[in-house]
Amino acid sequence: MELWKHAPLEQPLRSNALGGIVRLYLAHALHAARIGLLALSEMEKEGPDKKMALMYPGLDEYLTVDAQTELSRLKRAIEKLMPPEVQSGFGMDTEPHATSTRQKLTWIPAPH
What we know:
Elements: H1 2-5, H2 14-46, H3 50-55, H4 59-81, H5 84-89, H6 101-106
């Protein structure tokens, strides 16, 4: 990222520099969407929050499905812009392998 930030825009590599920054943000967003979907899947396996289910029956499931729908939509849109061959250029797996997705959500920093 730092390399692209300092690339002179009047040079012939202008498109590479600017496009590279955008692709880096897309790769980051795709990773976040995939980790989010894994976290929701993990939460679904654990079942609804008992306190919420008692106070608001069905709300937890509704919120989970709504979040899954939104993240899936975003993931598909980004994947159209970043096909597998582009993803591999960023060292990305097609799907993340997570041991604890809830913990992984906390370490998704914004690209610098």
